[in-house]
Design goal:
Radius of gyration: 16 Å
Shape: globular
Structural class: alpha/beta
Number of strands: 5
Largest sheet: 5 strands, mixed
Strand order of the largest sheet: 3-2-1-4-5
Distance between the termini: 5 Å
Number of helices: 7
Strand content: 15-25%
Helix content: 25-40%
Order of helices and strands: EEEHHHEHEHHH
Mean pLDDT: 91
Amino acid sequence: MNLAQLKHFYVVDTETTGFSRSNADAIEVSALEVIQKNGKFQVVNEFDSYINPQYPLPPNIVEFNEKNGTGICDEFLADKPLAGIVAQDLYDFLGDNPILVGHNLPFDEKFIDKLYRENLGIPLETSESVDTLAICRAKMNNASNKLCDVHAKTKGSHSAEHPQFHNSLADCYATLDVLEHLKEKYYDKGYER
């Protein structure tokens, strides 16, 4: 897909209790509803919810969250909604077969799919998926895998009010900055995902 053809889509990101879908769960899910108007991406709605996993966070995730100042800990998550509520709210926000955009999107799609399957009994189905990490690897020499490193090359116009990384809502805004940067720099060269 030519990035200039993205007219209505959702940027998604998750924070999780680990890296493998088989033994980890989402603890924060965020999404931005975005339209393209006059060649610029505009956020028209946002979704953000933490999830109480109903079990203690693994020590490596606790350490990661403390190191990165996310504030996500067992005490913080204790009064957050359960997965079933968040799954339904997210599905209502994204609708059927959305176009999804994310940085390392396959990771987030796996956890959203798990959230849907375990709580709604349905898979995540998309009409299109755009992974900014894959585009960065294809188009930018020696591109870092880290969103914060790639984001440093952008204007940062969408994420100015959301500077913290490793918070899924802030990462959605940073991903949108990366997407806009990639569109402006490469779309007219005929990038196809």
